[in-house]
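REVIEWER CHECKLIST
Item 1: Sequence provided? yes
Item 2: Single chain? yes
Item 3: Sequence as submitted:
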Amino acid sequence: MTTSRARPSAADGLASAEGDFVQIIDMPRRLADDDGGIAECEVRMALVNPPGMRSQADAA
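Item 4: Structure as written out by the authors:
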């Protein structure tokens, strides 16, 4: 699915205005370059209608 450091955000599990189920995932990343430098960032992904999520939302 995602890296072991991935964590769902507070916005996880939103229904859009169009009726699509949207899951937001924030993934903190640490990147190293060839000179020994380290950069940290966060990648945000939005999954629209991920498999299995629609049935979970309907059951709630």
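Item 5: Key structural point noted by reviewer: The helical segments are 53-59.
Item 6: Recommendation: ____
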